[in-house]
């Protein structure tokens, strides 16, 4: 299989960005404590729910911030929630052993089946959410309803985060408990 750095280089994953973080990801994947933490499915499910809640909270605060008012408390909350959401998303990816982030040539057959299933389900969820957004936009346009940017931008953000984060969240939710050695 090789290291994360070798797999990122060999399959051309994300270019310089992924190679920059490949060492940190490699270290996190090799961390036995993290592996034990996310081995049980119940813990991974709690992690996915926390990530979803943080994402929705981030988008809600983003929708409350207006360029003209600049409420510093909301901007601080937005920054903290954004960092929390990124941290939780990285933990979800680590919990799923980066199966959705690494190119398919670097995966074994079992991982490839999981990767394909996660991408297929995610594509369907994203397609439905975009269709709902499109129908809502058409209804608003046809009824000449003005949709403020503070509503529209978070909805587009939600669709984007759903598209990007759902495959790993789906895997974290559905993968069976990972066996852990009891050598302590």
From TrEMBL:
Keywords associated with the record: Membrane, Transmembrane, Transmembrane helix
Superkingdom classification of source: Bacteria
Chain segments annotated as transmembrane: 47-66, 72-90, 149-173
Protein name: Uncharacterized protein
Organism: Marinactinospora thermotolerans DSM 45154
């Amino acid at each position: 299989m090789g290291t994360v750095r070798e797999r990122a280089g060999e399959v051309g994953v994300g270019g310089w960005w992924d190679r920059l973080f490949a060492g940190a990801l490699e270290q996190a994947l090799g961390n036995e404590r993290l592996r034990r933490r996310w081995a049980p499915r119940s813990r991974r499910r709690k992690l996915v729910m926390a990530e979803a809640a943080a994402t929705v909270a981030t988008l809600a605060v983003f929708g409350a911030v207006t360029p003209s008012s600049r409420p510093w408390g909301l901007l601080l909350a937005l920054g903290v929630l954004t960092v929390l959401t990124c941290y939780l998303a990285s933990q979800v990816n680590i919990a799923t052993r980066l199966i959705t982030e690494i190119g398919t040539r670097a995966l074994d057959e079992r991982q490839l089946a999981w990767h394909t299933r996660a991408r297929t389900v995610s594509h369907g969820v994203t397609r439905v959410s975009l269709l709902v957004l499109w129908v809502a936009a058409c209804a608003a346009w046809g009824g000449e309803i003005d949709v403020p940017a503070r509503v529209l931008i978070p909805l587009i953000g939600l669709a984007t985060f759903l598209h990007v984060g759902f495959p790993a969240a789906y895997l974290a939710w559905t993968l069976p408990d990972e066996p852990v050695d009891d050598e302590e």
